[in-house]
Write a structure and sequence with these properties.
The protein has seven helices and five strands. With 221 residues, it is an alpha+beta fold. It folds into three domains: 9-87, no CATH class; 94-168, Alpha-Beta Plaits (2-Layer Sandwich), CATH 3.30.70.2740; 191-221, no CATH class. The longest helix has 20 residues, at 149-168.
């Protein structure tokens, strides 16, 4: 983006995500501690070729392990297969998950992923992450077995630490999917009480009987 290249898509998969989908579908993906970045361009073919060369040079400069360029739609689809089939491959790690979509500044993305792995090791839980690197929106998946009370407690602690990390990095705990019920207990980590009270009063003004999506985000008396 600093080089004035604006892809249509920049998708990210951490090493644990790559490992899951590679083993599940037997895909030809690099092994080891590698992160996958899918970058898609569109527009005039001459400009696509020019930008693709620039992107390859940037990736090589940053120490990429491997760079693959799709030459046709078939090759592109093979690369996208990994991203599209990622979520169904995660249960091989644990049967249940806490799925959160968080956002951090793009400049903090590498730091966030590294510290996310540290949290996973601390609690002995696999926490694969993937998402939209272009806007810093990352889907965090805390994999655990809810029938194991100790592991369920660890998952809850890990979630709180992850959300605090997001706030510390000047991010937001809710990216694409809103607050709803699952993030309701944590919204106060990001929005101060005075802000929540103002939002509650606005909600009451438009919905005095509390019949519109009741119980979501906050309780209205």
């Amino acid at each position: 983006i600093k080089e004035k290249i604006v892809p249509t898509t920049i998708e990210f998969m951490d090493s644990l995500s790559v490992e899951c989908v590679r083993d599940q579908l037997n895909l030809d993906l690099p092994k080891g501690d590698v992160t996958l970045l899918l970058i898609e361009l569109d527009g005039d073919q001459v400009l696509i070729d020019r930008d693709a060369r620039k992107i390859e040079a940037l990736c090589q400069k940053m120490g990429t392990v491997e760079f693959r360029l799709a030459r046709d739609k078939g090759e592109a689809e093979d690369l996208w297969k990994a991203r599209r089939n990622l979520s169904p491959s995660l249960p091989q790690l644990r049967p249940h998950k806490i799925n959160q979509d968080v956002v951090v500044p793009r400049s903090c993305l590498a730091d966030f992923v590294t510290r996310l792995s540290d949290i996973g090791r601390k609690h002995d839980l696999p926490i694969p992450s993937f998402g939209h690197a272009g806007d810093g929106n990352i889907h965090v998946n805390i994999m655990f077995n809810r029938d194991d009370k100790d592991e369920a407690a660890k998952a809850d602690k890990a979630l709180k630490e992850i959300l605090k990390l997001v706030i510390d990095l000047n991010g937001t705990i809710s990216g694409e999917h809103g607050v709803g019920i699952s993030k309701k207990p944590y919204i106060g980590m990001e929005i101060p009480q005075i802000g929540l009270e103002l939002m509650s009063r606005i909600k009451s003004a438009f919905d005095p009987n509390g019949i519109l999506n009741p119980g979501k985000i906050f309780d209205v008396n």
